[in-house]
Amino acid sequence: MSLFCDVALAVPLDMVFTYAVPPGMEPVVGGRVLVPFRQQRMSGIVVELHDRPPQVKTKKVIEALDLSPVLDEHLLKLGKWIADYYLAPMGEVFRTMLPLSAEFKRSVAYRITDQGRLALHLAGMSGSPARSKRTPEQQLVEFRVLDHLAEREGVREERLRGATRVGKALLAGMVRKKWIVREDVSAARDAARMVKMAVLLGAEASPPLDGPEARPHTGSAKTLNANQQTLIETLAASGGRLPVEALRGLDVPRTTLGTLVRRGLIKLVDEPQDFTTSKLKPRQSPFEFEFSAAQKEALAKIGEAVGSRKFAGLLLHGITGSGKTAVYLACMRQVLEQGRSSILLVPEIGLTPAVAADLHQVFGDEVAILHSGLSDAERAEQWHRIRRGEARVVAGTRSAVFAPVSDLALIIVDEEQDSSYKQEETPRYHARDVAVMRAKMAAAVVVLGSATPSLESYYNAKKNKYALVELPDRVEMRPLPEVEIIDMRQEFQETGQEQVISRKLAEEIRERLEKKEQVMVLLNRRGYSPVVLCRACGKTLQCKNCAVSMTHHKRERKMECHYCGHVERIPDKCAHCGSEYVYFVGTGSEKLEELLHGLFPQARIGRLDRDTVRGREDFEHALNALNEGALDMLVGTQMIAKGHDIHGVTLVGVVGADMALGLPDFRAAERTFQLLTQVAGRAGRGQSPGKVVLQTYFQDHYAVQFAARHDFAGFYEKELQFRAWMHYPPYSAIANVLIRSEKLDDALTWSGELGRWFEKTRHEGIRVLGPAAAPITRLKRDYRYHFILKSPSREKMNALLRAMLAEAAARKIPRTQVIVDVDAVWLM
Length: 828
Ligand code: ADP
Ligand code: ZN
Ligand code: ZN
Prior knowledge:
With 828 residues, the chain is of the alpha/beta class.
């Protein structure tokens, strides 16, 4: 039995904490323990058990929460690697790896202490608590809090604050006086997300036991008023049950439902939300067709690698529509037949309903699908299913790379270049790179699939770190679409005005609509107008929290910041000079939809962007509508560009996808090339060939030119050259170090201090650029300065970053204000 254990806690500190293990308690490595930390109790992961007495006095573990590890040896090792590679606190890494936040989250509750009871008692006697510096009002609030807690067993912070209107500071003060204690509570018992359903009692199938009179039937409808009748009829028409939310859409007063419930005609029940089943009809089974020669070869190569039980990395470069998904599914089925496990990672919006339906069709209950729509409790439930071995096929977004499968044989990363694999908060890991490392540690195979691989992966394949497997043709030898470039500067000169939709694009759209074919139009910017400009003083309306302009949303009648979500009223005059000459400039997807409606009043047009898609259902709905021919045209942001396989689309219009080329970001060309190739890939996937009309202001740019020619190799060679010259990845490792603070002075001082430290410290083979104002100088209230580090040696770079963090800590710069982003994807 060990005397001490080292625990990783989810706090922003780069260390583990040693606690004494009380006699009789048996924590396990990789299991959770509950420990006191500052004024709280927190759960953390045990990383080591030992008998080395620490220098300082230790506190005791309160409770060992797990009898067996929640992170097995492999995952524990992977987590330590992530902490080390991305310079992230280990406890925060483990928190990310375990979707048990429902059990793990620091939900805080308060409990009264004996001293608190005494204070309450004294206050009750003398009319005021012991002498204090606080105002009578504050004392009154304290009294209320003690009173509230005295009769209860631990009250959640939100509840307590709601009931007593106590402020944070006052609560903290009471904790310091030891009147109350804060503690962690497990939220695991919080039920899975429930939906309130209205159930029509008369419509239930079971025969009434207490006689027909007790139950309403259609005959009693006579006694209902019009509103009540509407509700009852709506319910009856939907099989007798509907979410209460859905009834709110009806034009009847809210009280009507209550009345009907009281009259016993309707009952309300809580039901767990149904999340795994998709309402979509499965497509033709992915195994009903004969695989192409290239597909067969890919399958064989992957199968062989899996069979060797050694690590192998493969880059599956298959053009859009080449049948990659079918290859994935076939590989995963093989693995399952061998009784082993596989994980399929997909981008945030890549887990389309169609793919989910395919997965269910092929794997039934053996598949666990982890997507962003799950509640914490649902996620935890899936995690436990996987760990019990009930689901050996896992598909999901980023964090599914941590799925606790046993005997892992294969990880597939679909659209491996997608930036949603990078987590933009601590720990700032990249799921594709973690997948490669996990496969290495588990002697498994990793397959990176894409029509447009990242420069990094392409380079690794060239260097033979990955085996390159190609699907060079579309299935059934369908041709790639022809791409026509429209130079929008020339369009401007010829028409004398700024155009959103060029004459050529309008003509092509008209043609398709006449032929009853479908059209997709991409504009990668949501909202109505991205800028509000004052003609008198030239200033724009900026977000009060960020140095970016607010976007006009016409239908929702608001201005919104797309970076922090801040919302304002639509201005009728300039905020700077008061002039009334304010103009809304530029076009977003909302305005594009309106313009297209104007041009093609008969067309049925749908829009897909973050404003119209609130959840998976909206997404599913729009794609279904297009699939079933209920829409003629779909307008949208990059959401329309990826992964969908809709056969009726023969024309893709690109109205705006090259904005990124104007940004100070070395990945701009790569991103633009990828987006253009992806969206072009939506055209001509069915029997009729497709066409793409690509409007651009950068018609000579190589990203545009190579994308138009479907020339992947050409683009990669050119881009690699540029990266080599500029010492950018894949030739150099890079890291972005961001210093942020709500106080400009702090941000300036800290970045200046660290800048001087970087200068003083000699670091051969590492370039340090900065400090400089970040391209977005202010974001979510924080002023931002940054450094960019580049080095061919990752070890050296990480050593320097580690020394920098130590220096920052010595200078008392809060850890949360120094962001280290290794392999940064965005430098903004
Ligand atoms: P990708 O992901 O490479 O863009 P998908 O995997 O979505 O392509 O495949 C495109 C379409 O071709 C899908 O409808 C799929 O069912 C179909 N498909 C895949 N393989 C074949 C094949 N060998 N023969 C016929 N159709 C196929
Ligand atoms: Zn003005
Ligand atoms: Zn903002």
